[in-house]
Structure formats: C-alpha cells, structure tokens
Amino acid sequence: MDRIKVMVVDDSAFMRKVISDILSRERGMEVVATARDGVEALEKLHQVEPDVVLLDVEMPRMDGLTFLEQALSEKPLRIVMLSALTGEGSQVTLEALEKGALDFIQKPGGSISLDIEKKADEIVNKIKAIALVPSDRLRDYLAEVKKRAKLAPSFGKKMVAQNLILVASSTGGPRALGILMENMKPLERGGMVLIQHMPVGFTRGLAERLNQLSPVSTKEAEEGAPILANSALIAPGGKHLLISEEKKINLNDDPPLKGLKPCADISFLSAISAFHQRILAVVLTGMGKDGLEGCRAIKKAGGKVIAQDEKSSLIFDMPRAVIEAGLADQVLPLARIPQAIWEWEQKEAERDEAYVE
Tell me: the pLDDT tens digits for 277-300? Predict the structure, then answer.
C-alpha cells in the first residue's frame, strides 16, 4: 500500500477541515473524499475506494450507524467511528463496534470538537493500524459479525472464585470479547477479569452487552467487588484495576502506564498475590504490548497463557509480543479459546480433587 486513502464523514465542516488537515500533513496518507452525512458518503463510495472510513456517529439525513449497516451490506470496509463523550454516544458506538466498525476515536468536548488537534496522534496511529488489516482478515471478521446469534440471559454463582481468567484486549477487542463471552461455558470455580482499552463512559455499556450474550454473568467492576465464580468484571474506562489478596477489586486514579488506563499489565501483576499459579492469562487482539510483562510474571508464578492467533486477530501486536517472548502455552483462533478456558478450569478442578484424595 503506497498511500493510505481515507474518507472523512462528519456533518461539521469544521471537523472535516481539521481532520483532513491532520491526515494530509502525514506522509503516506491521503484524504480522497469527505462527506457531510451518510447519504453523501454512500454516493462517494461508488466513486472512490478508501482504505479507511473515519465516520461520525451523529449526522442528519443518515447517521453513522445506518451508513455503517448499508455500506457493509455492499462490501467490506475498514471503518473507524468518531464518538462524542455522551451516554447516548457511547451506546451507539458500542452498537457500531458490534455491527462491524473496527475501532473508535473519542472526540474531546462534544460532537463539534474544538480540541480535536489533541487527538491527532491517536487518529493517525489508529488509521495506520486499521489500514494494515489484511483484506481476508477483514472479510472473516465481518462475516462473524453477520452470523453471531444471541444467547439466553446470563446467570452467576455467589461462590468466591478459586481460579482466575484474565483477559487483555485493545483494538478489535469489543468484537472479540463478544465472541469469547457468548461461547463460554459456565465456570464452576473460575472468575474472570476483562481489561479492554476504553475511555470513561464506554465500559459499562460494553459490560451490559456482554452480559446479554454470555452464560457468565458480566458487569463493570466496582471498588471492593469480590471476584465470584461464573462472573466476569470489566475494568472501568479511566481507572486502573488491581486485585487484592482478599480477591476483591481495587480501583485507582494513578497516571496512565504506557498511555493506558486501564492497563492490563497492572491488573495481571496484582492478581498473583491472590491467585498464585491458578491464573490463566488470555491476550487478544490489540495494538502495542500491554499484557506482556503481566504474562511474564504469571508464567513465573506457575500460571498459563493463551494468545489469540494472527489470522483471527484484527491487530496482532499484543498477542505477537507474548508469543515472540516465548510465554504462550497455546496460540489459538478466537473461536477455540472458550473451550481452552473450560479445559483449563477442568484441569484445575482435577488437581484439587487429586490433592484432597
């Protein structure tokens, strides 16, 4: 790919101009079209073939979600959402991720963001990463979007977890977590903690959506919450999540680590004092290397690590870092990870029974 071709879709002329300026000054990037709403964007898609579409959520005539559905029904597209920091905006963004958007960028200050220049690096980096997603992987990803079915309402047990499954994910993570959680079997003794890189205002909605899909009861983590069997807690956006020796959640406002808050490494490292070798770390799709140091410590303590394979990862950076460090006990397609988690828990239960005998 010589140049990354981008289409910018936003109802604000100011936003279209500023975002186009940000992208145009980046070597190797070209804004091939702009559109003020979904109707105009659909028309221009027949004239240009962008590598990435940067798509606003709230627009007249045709909003971002409607455009997303119609455009993806015609052909595979790499779409990144632009979302305002509102409760409604976060819900629509999560719905967009479920329907095939690959990532999102949060506008600072509302739908017309005078401070969008502050997001310049994030915009450029995410577009670069998304543009590199191979076409066959994009088609597989979007095919999974179409065929996923809803499961029955979730349930949970009240017993404190004896085993812990830690999951780290970033770009492509909301979609991957949906597939993971809907295919989970009930956990007899294990609890889950999910660390998805998301800003404030998005993780509660994500937890609610995952809870509708999964037989594992899922909610956003709260201070002091115990880690229970057959329950999953998702780290709140804008907070670091630690696990105490009493197997309870501690949230704090420490500065971001490597630009991340929540940061999976912090959560992974904190869990060892409570669960020791009874930890399974799962590293899913995402940019960067978050989870690498946590997995290193978990392995040293006797725990296990699963990494998502490249073909099923939207962005392979995080799993690759773990694999190349020699820390992955298994490298699996996303669809096989739920079964591997269940098998790991069964082995832990057998170990307990052997010890009692």
Answer: 999 999 999 999 999 999 999 999
Does residue 154 have an active-site annotation?
no
Measured distance CA(235)–CA(261) in Å, rounded = 9
Mean pLDDT over 141-160 rounds to 60
Structural class in CATH, domain 4-147: alpha beta
Residues 6+ apart with CB under 8 A from 336: none
Is-catalytic flag, 290? yes
Verify whether residue 136 is a known catalytic residue. no
Choosing from 111, 113, 169, 170, the catalytic residue is 170
Torsion of CA 315, 209, 149, 230, to 10 degrees: 90
Task: Name the pTM for this structure.
Answer: 0.79
Domain with CATH 3.40.50.2300 in the chain: 4-147
> Distance between CA atoms of 264 and 290, rounded to whole angstroms?
6
CATH architecture of 163-356: 3-Layer(aba) Sandwich (3.40)
Active-site annotation holder among 51, 63, 290, 309 = 290
Contact 10, 36 (CB under 8 A): yes
What contacts 44, CB < 8 A, 6 or more positions away? 7, 33, 35
Q: Where are the alpha helices (DSSP H) in 151-192?
A: 173-182
